[in-house]
Structure formats: C-alpha cells, structure tokens
Amino acid sequence: MAALPRLVCASSVVLVVWAGVCSAVCVEVPSETEAVQGRHMKLLCISCMKREEVTASTVVEWFYRPEGGKDEPIYEYRKTNHEFPSRFSGRLQWNGSKDMQDVSITVLNVTLNDSGIYTCNITREFEFEIHRPLFTSSRLIHLTVVEEAGEDFTSVISEIMMYILLVFLTLWLLIEMVYCYRKVSKAEEAAQENATDYLAIPSENKENCAVPVEE
C-alpha cells in the first residue's frame, strides 16, 4: 500500500517535468529545507531568465552561515566552477543546468553540522547593443539536518485511507457473498419442498393433476 502514494507522487513529478520540457517554461520552485544525515541534499536555486533571446553572462555565488555566525563563501560559478576551502571541501557538487536558470548545488554526505542558512546570489549581465544592464537576485535556504527521515504526513494519511477502503470493500464482498448464499439456499429449499410435496401425492391424484388435452 505504501508504494501507491509514492507511485502517484512520482507520476505527478514526471508529468510536471514533461509539461515543463514541452512548454519550455521556467518555474522558480523553492528548495527543500530538511536534510537527512548521511544522505545527499540538493540546494535548489532557480532564477528564470526574463529575456531568453538575449545572451547573458551569469555569475553564481553560494554562501553558508551557521547559526550565530557570519556568511562564508563556499562555492562560485564564474564561467568555471570553483569550490572555496570550507567545512564542505570535497562535498559540494555543481547541479545546475546548461542555460544557467537552474544554478543549484548538491551537498554530499550531509552532517548535523551542515544546518544553517545558505544563500544563493545570481548576477546576470545582459548584452544589448547599446548598454549592458546587470540584474541580481538572491535565494535563502534555511536548512535543518535530522538524524532520520520522518514519515511524510500526507503519505501516512494516504495509507490510512487505502486501508480503510480495503476493509470496507472486504466487508462489502463478504456481505454480498452471504446474501447470495442465503438466496440460493432458500431457492434450493423451496425447490426441494415442492419436489417432496409432489412425491407425497398419491398416484391417482397425480393423474387428476394432469392437464386435460382438448381434441
């Protein structure tokens, strides 16, 4: 039963991705804010380009700030990828798209100390014939790292509803089977009583019961 809600969710995700590819629409989806210790966590940062027909150079800067601390650079994209020396050294991976609308990174083997605030700064310089305007945007991700993954509330509700539906259908089938069995049993009893009554009639009376045939 647990596989059905996950299958529905996976199908919804595939449908959304397929629709996005076919319509070439960029959607700025917020990043997840909870990671599990020991797993990989994608810090989602999407900045849709308003003028896709114009060539633009993009610079991406990622910062990390622990609780009560200051921002420290951890990753940068400026035509090439560059990872700054930090607590994440060797654990950061570029996970962006070629069109530079998705400029996400992935933290490998997340630890409890990775909780904090992540900042994604995007700077774009558009190349017009007369001038080269700059556009900047920023995304904040408040990440919390937990030791174990908690059960999704929606998934729990879906499983409970599926179990209730299964029990209801099972009871309904049992009631239908009992009803049909009793109905067939009564029909057989009635037929058997009629046959018994007929056999109990004397033979001379049976002849009288015959329907006369008109000539």
Could you explain the architecture of this structure?
- The protein has 215 residues and is of the alpha+beta class.
- It contains 3 helices and 9 strands.
- The protein has helices at 3-23, 153-200, 203-208, and strands at residues 34-36, 41-43, 56-65, 72-78, 81-83, 92-94, 105-107, 116-126, 134-146.
- The strands form 2 sheets. A 6-stranded mixed sheet has the order 1-9-8-3-4-5, with no helix packed on it. Strands 2-7-6 form a 3-stranded antiparallel sheet, with no helix packed on it.
- β8 (116-126) and β9 form a beta hairpin.
- The chain is elongated and about 120 Å long.
Element pattern in H and E: HEEEEEEEEEHH
Q: Give me the secondary-structure category.
A: alpha+beta
Please report the number of helical segments.
Answer: 3
Alpha-carbon distance between the two ends: 74 Å
Helical coverage, percent range? 25-40%
Our Rg estimate from Cα atoms comes to 36 Å
Overall, the morphology is elongated
Ranges with pLDDT <50 over ≥5 residues?
1-23
- In the sheet with the most strands, the strands line up as 1-9-8-3-4-5
Largest sheet: 6 strands, mixed
The tally of beta strands, per DSSP, is 9
Mean pLDDT: 80
Task: Summarize the helices and strands and which ones pair or pack.
Blueprint: H1 3-23, E1 34-36, E2 41-43, E3 56-65, E4 72-78, E5 81-83, E6 92-94, E7 105-107, E8 116-126, E9 134-146, H2 153-200, H3 203-208
Parallel strand pairs: 1-9
Antiparallel strand pairs: 2-7, 3-4, 3-8, 4-5, 6-7, 8-9
